[in-house]
């Protein structure tokens, strides 16, 4: 299962507004993210797309899919106890 969500540049300059958003996301089938399953999330930008007036489309796409990379699981005891120096 792979999910793509397109977000468009928000040109509003009001305070506390998201940089990209989409108020009309529609999925073709029900989507449930399963507890405990590792997912891969990526953000893509495609500058080759244009709007109906031929202007560059200010859009990013979010891709969510199950992670198929077979990495060994880490437990808390596998992680170092060292604090990060600031």
- Counting structural domains, the number is 1
In angstroms, what is the radius of gyration?
A: 19 Å
Uncertain ranges:
none
Biggest sheet, spatial arrangement of strands? 2-1-4-3
Shape: extended
How many DSSP E strands? 4
Termini separation:
40 Å
Q: What is the ordering of alpha helices and beta strands?
A: EEEE
Percentage of residues in strands:
25-35%
- What is the average of the pLDDT values? 82
Reported for the largest beta sheet, the result is: 4 strands, antiparallel
Number of helices, where a helix is a run of at least 4 consecutive DSSP H or I residues? 0
Task: Explain what you see.
Helix content is 0%, strand content 29%. The protein has a 4-stranded antiparallel β-sheet with strand order 2-1-4-3, with no helix packed on it. It has one domain. The chain is built from no helices and 4 strands. It starts with a strand and ends in a 20-residue tail after the last strand. The model has no long low-confidence stretch (mean pLDDT 82). The chain has strands at 2-9, 20-21, 39-45, 59-66. It is an all-beta fold.
Provide the fold topology.
Blueprint: E1 2-9, E2 20-21, E3 39-45, E4 59-66
Antiparallel strand pairs: 1-2, 1-4, 3-4
Give a quick summary of the entry.
This protein is an all-beta fold.
What descriptors fit this protein?
86 residues, mainly beta, 4-stranded antiparallel sheet
């Amino acid at each position: 299962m792979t999910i793509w969500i397109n977000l468009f540049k928000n040109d509003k300059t009001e305070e506390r507004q998201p940089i990209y958003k989409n108020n009309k996301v529609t999925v073709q089938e029900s989507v449930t993210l399963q507890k405990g399953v590792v997912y891969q999330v990526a953000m893509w930008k495609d500058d080759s797309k244009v709007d109906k007036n031929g202007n560059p489309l200010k859009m990013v796409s979010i891709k969510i899919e199950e992670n198929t990379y077979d990495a060994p699981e880490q437990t808390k005891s596998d992680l170092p106890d060292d604090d990060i120096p600031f």
